[in-house]
């Protein structure tokens, strides 16, 4: 979008300059002004998306493409998992997220298998870097 706005701006500048040079054109002194206003609108629209995206990354906002409730529910459905809490997901760059989670599990369960299952849940939901803190609960 941003590159397209730049290219269109260049075309508008050339067109306004060319039309401004033709004698006897009505309101030819305003072509440059019209082109400038259109360019301002194009730049504003393209810059707004970039600023929003950068702001979300800098503020480490909650990624919009991940469903926290679905990930938590899928983790809690794993055999041996008693509960999931302190689930945090951050978007560190566009399209790349990291996560941390605490998983309470039955002390008799296979901790390595549960850890692998939790990591697979996050991987299938688009989070490829997750830190899992396990808590063994004696039942």
Describe the structure.
By secondary structure, the chain is an alpha+beta fold. Helix content is 51%, strand content 24%. The protein has four helices and three strands, in the order H-H-H-E-E-H-E. The chain has helices at residues 2-21, 31-58, 68-76, 111-124, and strands at 81-93, 96-106, 129-137. The protein starts with a helix and ends with a strand.
**H and E string:** HHHEEHE
Q: What integer value in Å does the Rg equal? A: 27 Å
Report helical residue fraction: 40-55%
Main pleated sheet: 3 strands, mixed
What does the oligomeric state look like here?
Answer: single chain
- Structural class from helices and strands? alpha+beta
Q: What form results from the Cα inertia axes?
A: rod-shaped
Question: How do the helices and strands line up, and which of them pair or pack?
Answer:
Blueprint: H1 2-21, H2 31-58, H3 68-76, E1 81-93, E2 96-106, H4 111-124, E3 129-137
Parallel strand pairs: 2-3
Antiparallel strand pairs: 1-2
Helix pairs in contact: 1-2
Nutshell version of this structure?
It is built from 4 helices and 3 strands; from the N terminus they run αααββαβ. The protein has helices at 2-21, 31-58, 68-76, 111-124; strands at residues 81-93, 96-106, 129-137.
């Amino acid at each position: 979008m941003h590159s397209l706005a730049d290219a269109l701006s260049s075309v508008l500048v050339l067109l306004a300059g060319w039309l401004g040079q033709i004698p006897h054109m009505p309101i030819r002194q305003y072509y440059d002004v019209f082109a400038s206003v259109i360019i301002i609108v194009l730049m504003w629209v393209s810059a707004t998306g970039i600023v929003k995206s950068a702001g979300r990354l800098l503020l480490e906002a909650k990624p919009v493409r991940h469903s926290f409730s679905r990930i938590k529910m899928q983790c809690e459905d794993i055999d041996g998992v008693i509960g999931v809490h302190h689930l945090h997901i951050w978007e560190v760059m566009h399209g790349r997220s990291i996560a941390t989670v605490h998983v309470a599990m039955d002390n008799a369960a296979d901790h390595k298998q549960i850890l692998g299952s939790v990591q697979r849940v996050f991987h299938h939901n688009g989070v490829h870097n997750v830190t899992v803190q396990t808590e063994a609960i004696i039942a």
